[in-house]
Write the C-alpha cells for this entry.
Amino acid sequence: MYHVEMKDLEKSYDNQKNVLNGIDLAIEDGEFFVLVGPSGSGKSTLLRMIAGLEEITGGILKINDKVVNHLRPKDRDLSMVFQNYALYPHLTVEQNILFGLNAKKVNKKEQQKRLNETAEMMGLSELLKRKPKQLSGGQRQRVALARAVVSHAPLCLMDEPLSNLDAKLRAHMRMEIRRLQKKLGLTMTMGDRIMVLDDGKIQQVGDPITLYNEPANLFVASFIGSPRINLGQAVIKDHQLVIEESIHIPITTSDIGNIIQKNNLTIGIRAEHIFHGDEDSKTHELEVISVEHLGNETLLTFEIGKELWTAKWLGQWRVQVGDKVPVNISVENMSFYDTKTTELIKPATSVVKEQEVVAI
Amino acid sequence: MSDLTVQIDKDYTKEFGKAKKLQRLKSFFKGVLFLLPSIILFSVFLFYPLFKTLYLSLFLTDASGATTVFVGLDNYQAIFTSPLFLKSLEVTFLFVLYTVPGTVIVSLFLAVLANEKLRGIGIFRTLFSSTMGISVAAASVFWMFLFHPTMGWLNQLLENLGIEAIGWLTDPDWALISVSISTIWMNLGFTFLILLGGLQSIDSYLYESADIDGASYFYKLRRITIPMLSPTLFFVITVSFINAFQTFGQVDMLTRGGPQNETNVIVYSIYQEAFRNYQHGAASAQAIVLFIVILLLTLIQFKLGERKVHYQ
C-alpha cells in the first residue's frame, strides 16, 4: 500500500508557466523519502502542496488511498517541520510542543503524557520552560521535531530541516533524525529513496547508490556527489576516445559496448576513479593546478581542455602545484551521455562489478 | 636589560592612551555635529518653552504675558482648589477612558479584517486608513453636520427608527461621548495603519504551522496574533493615550468646552485661561500639571506593560 501517491501533479501560479510538471510518485509506508534539487526546483512547493498549504493546480494527490486534493491541512493527518522551524517566539518550549494538541483539544492528561514522552526522546526535558530565543540552533531544531513527533501523525514532512545548521551540527542532526525514525518505529526493512528534482520535473528516483553510480542524466550526475563528477566532451575516432581534444584513450568494441553514437558524447568520471598511476598502469601525465589536503584524502585539480577535473586520492600526497603526476584513467570507469539530450547512454561498467563484490 | 623593556612598554602605553583620547574626542565632536540640528530645534521649540512655562507658573502676569508678581506655588494651590480645573481633570480622564480603548479595539478589528489576503483588499485598506489624511478641522466640520440636532443624519436615522432625537453636542450627558466618537473616528486611520503594519510583520510560517496543527481561526488570533502584536499594541496604546490627553482641536470646533463644561478638557481649559482670561501664570501651572500627569501615567504604563509585552 502506498502512503502518499501523486498522479501527474502540477502547479502553476496565475496560469503562468508550470512550476511543477507531471509529478508521478508513490511513497510507501515507513519510507524515508528525500527530495533534492537546486533552489527554485520546486521542492518546497511540492512539499507544501502535500501539506495543503499550496493549492494543487492539476493532478491527483492521495494520502492513505484517499484523494486529499480538496482537504485542508489539518484534515490530512500529517505534521511538518519548517525550514526556519516556525517556533512561536512568545511561547515556552513546552507551550510550543503542546500548541497543536491544545488546538485539537486533546485532554490534559494525554497532553502531559505525550509531552514527557517526546521531551525525553528529544532530550528537551531540561529546556521545557525556556523561550526559543534562549535555545541554540540545534535545540530549536529539536523543538521543531518534537512538535512534529508529539502530534503522532503518520506522515512527517520536513522542509530543508538542516539548512539552518552549521556543517557539524547538520551531520549530527541527520543522525538524530534517523535514530528518531527508528525509535518511532517508522523504518521498515526498506532503504531510503531519493528523488532529484530540477526545473519542476523529476529527473530520477532511486536509492542513493543507484543515483550515484548510474545517474540518469547529466543533471543528476553533476548534482549528486562531492566533489562534482568530472565531465568532458568526447568523440570516438580511429579506435580512440578523444576527450576535450586533449586526452586520447584507445578503446576496443568491448569497452564501448552498444554505443553507436560517435559524436556529441559527454563522458563523466568520478573523482575517485582517476587513480594514481605507477610505472605500469599510468595512462596519462597531467599537470596539477591546485591541491587540497583533506585529512587522509587529497584532492588534485587538473585542466582538461576547458574543463577542470578533480581527482580524489586516498592518503596524504605531497604534490606541488605545477607538478606533472602520472594518472590512470580508464574507459570502464566512465559513463557516457548524449550531449544534446543529456540522457545516459551507458553507465560505467566498473561500478557494476564493484557492486557484485559488495553483494558477496 | 629588563629595566629597558619595562621603560619601553610604559612609553608605548602612554602614547596609545594619548592617541585613543584624541580619537574619542574627535568622534565625540563629530557626533555632536550630527546632533546639532535636532539639539537646536528641540531647544528652541521644546526645552525653552518648557522652562519658560515652569517659570511663568510661579508668577502672576499681565495681559501680554509679562511677569508681574512672584507668587511661588500659589498658582498651583489655586488651580487645585478650583472646581473648574478639577472638573476639567475629571473630563479629561473620562475622555481618555472613552477614546483609547475605543480607538484600539475598533482599529484592531479593522486591521485584522484588512489583513486577509483577498481580491480588492487594497481598497478597504485605503478606506480604513483614509482618516489619517483628514485634518481635525475638516473632520470636525463633517461631524458637526452629522451631529446637527435637526438636519444631522444621526438624528434622522434615530427618527426613522422611532427613537427620540438626541442633543449630541448640546446635552451635557451626551456631549463628551459625541466628542469621543468623533475623536475615535479621527484617530482610526493612524492606529489602523500601524496595527496593520504590525500584523503584516508576523511570520506567515507561524500561521501555516498552526494550520497543520489544526488550530481554529480564533485560537490563532488569541495564541499567535495578539501576543505577536503586543509590541505594536503597546506603542499604539501609549501614543493614543498621550494624544487623548492633549486633545484640543475637535473640542474647540464642536463644543467649545460646553455644555456646562462637560467637554472642557485640560488643554482647552489651558487655552481659555491663557488666551481668554489672560491668566498666563495659572495656565502655565495647568500645563505643568498636565505634563506631570502624562509623564507619570506613561511611566506607570511602561512598568506594567513591559511585563506583558513580548519583544522578539
Q: What stands out?
A: Chain B has a mean pLDDT of 88. Chain B touches chain A through 20 residues (CB under 8 Å).
